[in-house]
Amino acid sequence: MAKQTHSPLQHHFTSLSQQYAASQLGMWTFLLTELLFFGGLFLSYTIYRMSYPHGFAAASHELDVRLGCINTIVLISSSLTMALAVRAGHEGKGKSITGFLVLTMALGGTFLGIKSIEYAHKFHEHFVPGPNFAFPHYASQGPELFFSLYFAMTGLHAIHMIIGLVALGVVAWKATRGRYTKEYSTPVEMLGLYWHFVDIVWIFLFPLLYLLGRH
User: Fold this and answer.
1) Residue 197, Cβ neighbours under 10 Å: how many?
2) Per-residue DSSP letters for the chain?
3) Residue among 114, 113, 132 nearest 124 (CA)
4) Long-range contacts for 162-171 (Cβ within 8 Å, ≥24 apart)?
5) How far apart are CA 28 and CA 36, in angstroms?
6) Tens digit of each residue's pLDDT, the chain (215 residues)
């Protein structure tokens, strides 16, 4: 493993603690904007759900709860491996950081693979909003609105996961180069905050899309 040969302190900071505080502030500010962004989508879903309760319930029954449950377990597991990577960063264990980040990437890739199977099924069943949309079980706008929000919300969540996976790859590679120590593992911790945020968004999406109104 290559050893760190330069200071992680950026020139515009006077100490690592100041740099760490600035990183935390920046990340939490970014996550707040993300929260507002997803909050708008959740608000739209709530309004349309109240307007078309039966249509949304009928469309929700077409989602595969089993695959949704598996993906929830997979994502919660990835949160655990991410937390372990952050702890390894605090302990300055470069190999452990890399190992846990690779595990997190594998679980994230599994989530996206399962999600792509769900998307393919919805395309096959003509549940994608547009001129070819067909929902013979219920004649109203509700199901098409439901699937519009389903693809928008889960699609944006998937894009966030892809960005996270790229970031995980970069940080894992830097960990193999010995860039992180007990004194400096800020990128691992900030990435952990981002990954946990993505996981929490799914924890809200799953019951809202898959379980609400199901009986």
Assistant:
1) 17
2) -PPP-S----TT-SSHHHHHHHHHHHHHHHHHHHHHHHHHHHHHHHHHHHHSHHHHHHHHTTS-HHHHHHHHHHHHHHHHHHHHHHHHHHTT-HHHHHHHHHHHHHHHHHHHHHHHHHHHHHHHTT-SSSTT---TT--SSHHHHHHHHHHHHHHHHHHHHHHHHHHHHHHHHHHHTT---SS--HHHHHHHHHHHHHHHHHHHHHIIIIITT--
3) 132
4) 162/112, 164/108, 164/191, 164/194, 164/195, 164/198, 165/105, 165/108, 165/109, 165/112, 167/191, 167/194, 168/101, 168/104, 168/105, 168/108, 168/195, 169/105, 171/97, 171/101
5) 12
6) 445 556 777 777 778 888 888 889 999 999 999 999 999 999 999 999 999 999 999 999 999 999 999 999 999 999 999 999 999 999 989 899 999 999 999 999 999 999 999 999 999 989 999 888 888 767 778 899 999 999 999 999 999 999 999 999 999 999 999 889 888 999 999 999 999 999 999 999 999 999 987 66
Placement of tokens 């809202």 in the chain: 208
